[in-house]
Design goal:
It is a single chain. The protein has a 3-stranded antiparallel beta sheet, with helices on one face. It has a domain of about 90 residues: Double Stranded RNA Binding Domain (2-Layer Sandwich), CATH 3.30.160. Helix content is about 40%, strand content about 15%. It is of the alpha+beta class and about 140 residues long. The protein starts with 10 loop residues before the first strand and ends in an 8-residue tail after the last helix.
């Protein structure tokens, strides 16, 4: 997959009031960022990436295919804006990587025999701990 560059026109940012630390600025300044990216209509994302992106995004993606990321960790608007964009980039980077196919494996015969041998030894150890004369 080639590197994917998302244009600023495809991103929609909205600034909202943020809770948490910040003193009086919390009530006066809109420092939290709500970043929206319409992945379903994006021309830069290859179609094979969309299902993986949908699975990775989870609740952050709407039914219409819009990814909504809320960033309110920092006190400044610029820091939250940068944080939201980095989180979106990380999400897309993870979706672009094709997962390695899983090959089912089986334990070797020697491993199975070792397991059974240790189970039998453990059972004998427990049997020696029983009270003498108690039979079940």
């Amino acid at each position: 997959m080639p590197d994917i560059a998302i244009a600023d026109e495809e991103l929609e940012e909205r600034f909202v009031l943020s809770g948490g630390p910040g003193g009086q600025n919390v009530n006066k300044l809109a420092t939290a960022v709500e970043l929206r990216f319409d992945a379903g209509r994006s021309r830069t994302l290859p179609p094979v990436v969309l299902p993986r992106l949908r699975r990775l995004a989870g609740r952050r993606m709407t039914a219409a295919g819009v990814i909504v990321i809320q960033a309110r960790r920092h006190r400044t608007q610029e820091a939250n804006r940068k944080d939201a964009r980095e989180r979106l980039a990380t999400l897309i980077r993870r979706a672009v990587m094709t997962p390695k196919p899983r090959r089912p494996t089986r334990p070797s015969k020697a491993a199975m025999e070792r397991r059974l041998r240790t189970k039998k030894q453990r059972g004998q150890t427990k049997q020696t701990r029983r009270r003498p004369g108690s039979e079940e």
